Amino acid sequence: MEKLSALFGDQGDSWLEVDFSGWESPELDNRKFNMVRDAVINHRVLEIEYCNSKGEQDIRILEPLQMLYKARAWYLKAYCRTNGGFRLFKLSRILSAKAVGRQVEKKCYPAPSPTEHETPYTTFILRFSAVMAYRVYDEFDATSVQKEKDGTLLVTTCWPYDSWVAGYVLSFGPSVTVVEPQCLRDEIHEMAKKLCELYKT
């Protein structure tokens, strides 16, 4: 906070409020955040229940190394004793956490290779209706957004094409159209057919 005050030329203590919790369960979010933060600072081993991107839940034993805030979300960099490797854990997917002891030694989280990705990046072109402008500018860089003459917003972005992409696009409902790639159009078409079957009755 002192560094931020110096940066903005304000030495007062009321110009900025930082709240790490979400809107739905602030007490639970703050408790989890504080637990993870304290484990990082005090080098405490954590036992967590975690839900991965495939929806699978399991128990992990971690040596927490550093907290990371990136793309509007908090992450924990840690060495996972359960799987024997360095991992990045999204805090919102940590369902429960408790300290279970001190770690033996402080490890260094390896720097990512700029030329290697677990999943290759794909270019996506999405067309949003004007009513979604608030979410588009919340979730995409303004330089990737092009406003069309009809008021729609054309977004060009790059993501690793993983299992979460189709679900994320569907979260915009009928206010988005996938222009490219065709494989995502096909995937969403199949998901939409299954949704129609679910809601027939």
TrEMBL record:
Record-linked Pfam families: WCX, WYL
Domain WCX: 124-195
Domain WYL: 32-98
InterPro entries, sorted: CBASS_pafABC_assoc_protein, WCX_dom, WYL_dom
PANTHER family: PTHR34580, WYL DOMAIN-CONTAINING PROTEIN
Protein name: Uncharacterized protein
